[in-house]
Amino acid sequence: MSKEAEWDDRFKIGVDSIDKAHRKLFSIVHKLIGLSKDKSSGQWACAEGIKYFKNYAVKHFADEEAYMQSIGYEGYEIHKRLHDDLRYKTLPALEKDLRESGYSEESIQHFIGICVGWLTAHIIIEDRAIAGLISNKWKTDHMGADMDALENALSGTIHEIFQLPTEIVSEHYSGENFGKSMIIRLTYHSIDHEEVQIFMALEECLVLRAVSSILNIPLSKLDQLVMAIGKELAIQISKQVAIRCDLALQYHLENSHFMTPEQFRQAFYAGAFDYSLLFNTGRGYFAFVVGL
User: Fold this and answer.
1) Could you tell me the pLDDT band of residue 206, with boundaries at 50, 70 and 90?
2) What distances in angstroms separate CA 249 from CA 16, 44, 106, 292, one per listed residue?
3) Confidence bin at 9 (pLDDT 50/70/90)
4) Are 162 and 281 in contact, with CB atoms under 8 Å apart?
5) Arithmetic mean of pLDDT, 195-207
6) Rounded CA separation 182/178 (Å)
7) Residue 105: per-residue pLDDT
8) Do 226 and 139 touch, CB atoms closer than 8 A?
9) DSSP string covering 220-275, please?
10) Among 173, 115, 202, which residue's Cα sits nearest to residue 291?
């Protein structure tokens, strides 16, 4: 992860003030990684480092939003909503997880992993669009009743299948690495022959907990049996969400297969998605991405 947190010229967008701020954010994350690995640094040092990252990120968002307005950037509203999603949903949810876990190593890794992934994807995809280096990824920003219905359907389904409560971490998940995960791609076709892709990333600890409970035996690794059961759980999650959203009769499953994290990131960066959500169950993270 430390290599991912290092500045690279591919992150440059050509706006000096924004590039400097991005360099600073990567520098802060890099220091956080060092603190997380230093057993002598203690909870207080990590907490202060995380607080500094948050404060600097929020200031940078305000500056970047002012710049977008000054040049009349057409994608301003959606871009600001992505900032707000991190500012008001993702960071508070991660901070809550940190506090409740007593700044456990796992919760710190979640924080760093999601922040590194978010920064990388946001700069490469969203910020480069400000300078006209790439087209805007989020063509449509689904909010309101449709988003609420999907969130409620997922929360209810996850609760039924995993017997765990859920908390939304992000409504604009950008493919961030939140830990070792099992990733499945489901391809559906509609009655009108339109293709729909659903990607699900389930943290390994969440899958192991669910399958251990189903089989009533303790499990510590993802073997072929666990992955087969995990895939079927992913299919059932998708099916139940479709039922709850009154879409079950409109689509049929064409195929399903596992993906590596690299394949998932490549597909995510290359595609445009209509819904992309990240949840925390308290026992592991869960991402649900839909491309219509």
Assistant:
1) very high
2) 52, 53, 40, 16
3) confident
4) yes
5) 94
6) 11
7) 83
8) no
9) -S--HHHHHHHHHHHHHHHHHHHHHTT-TTTEEEEEEEEE-HHHHHHHHHHS--SE
10) 173
